[in-house]
Design goal:
The chain is an alpha/beta fold. It has eight helices and 14 strands. It has one domain (6-277): 4-Layer Sandwich (Metallo-beta-lactamase, Chain A), CATH 3.60.15. It binds zinc ion (3 copies). Residues 87, 89, 161, 185 line the site of one zinc ion.
């Protein structure tokens, strides 16, 4: 294992998972038949000099935490140093209630998020009582400001994304030698964000869809993610190093033998895989 601090990719699927909840498409059926094709919901683990932290806590939290604690050589019952939340959509917070009385219980785990997100969590069940009962402790992050997490420096960067219940951030995570940007969910690759991509050694970027027309649903227009087919050329022109994550089950690049996967790799980019390790020291 590398020297801390480092990051571990613990999940690379869009919120609904892969196989996707309620889906019998060919890709999902194949992932049921061959579990090695399955992907856990997007999540990034951080191993610091003092323990382990999570970026987002989705429905696959139990196995993701177990794997991360193993990396950090910490007992699985010792709480995370922090849980950093990008935003309040299901795949990013559904694991939080498992830290309550009916689950892990009593950890006092710091939840780092923006003021908007924390206010929404603290005002609504089943999250509110996790804070009242001391299972979670709110820690407000200010947009664009650095906060230290052991030997890492964390900076939340605002990104455009459907804000029905709170705002959305990407995290810039800086180690002693290398830095990454974790941006699993966004509606649009803005010039500001492209600037941040160029300023880090590696960016893990929203790769929900390969093409815009992929989602054949009545509400497809209300789910505006940048398509990899469009993003990859902009990113390549900017000279940024990118791995795509948060993949929807409809994304053909999920299949390692697809021509879409080859197109991504031909530009020097990658589809992130569960278990990938990124050195920061
Ligand atoms: Zn998501
Ligand atoms: Zn499917
Ligand atoms: Zn989202």
């Amino acid at each position: 294992m590398p020297t801390p601090p480092y990051a571990v990719v613990l999940g690379t699927a869009q919120d609904g998972g892969f196989p996707h909840v309620g889906c019998g498409c060919d890709a999902c059926s194949r992932a049921v038949a061959e579990p090695s094709r399955a992907r856990r919901v997007a999540c990034l683990g951080l191993v610091t000099s003092k323990g382990a932290a999570l970026v987002d806590a989705g429905p696959d939290l139990p196995s993701q935490w177990r794997e991360l604690a193993g990396h950090a050589r910490q007992a699985v019952h010792e709480p995370p140093r922090a849980i950093l939340v990008t935003h309040l959509h299901a795949g990013h917070i559904l694991g939080l209630p498992l830290l309550g009385r009916e689950g892990w219980g009593g950890t006092g785990t710091p939840v780092w998020a923006t003021e908007d997100c924390l206010a929404a969590l603290e005002a609504n069940e089943p999250f509110a009582r996790l804070f009242h009962e001391g299972h979670l402790a709110a820690r407000v992050l200010h947009l664009g400001w650095d906060t230290s997490l052991d030997d890492l420096v964390i900076q939340p960067i605002p990104v455009p994304h459907r804000a029905e219940i709170g705002d959305t951030v990407a995290y810039r995570i800086e180690g002693p030698e290398r830095s990454i940007l974790y941006a699993p969910d966004l509606d649009l690759l803005t010039p500001e964000l492209l600037g941040h991509l160029k300023s880090v050694d590696l960016a893990l970027l929203d790769g929900t869809f390969f093409r815009k027309r992929e989602l054949r649903r009545d509400d497809a227009n209300s789910v505006p993610h940048p398509a990899i087919a469009d993003t990859m050329s902009a990113v390549a022109r900017a000279g940024a190093r990118v791995w795509f994550t948060h993949l929807n089950h409809t994304n053909p690049a999920i299949d390692p033998n697809s021509r879409e996967r080859r197109a991504v790799e031909a530009l020097g980019m990658r589809i992130a895989e569960d278990g990938d390790v990124i050195e920061l020291a």
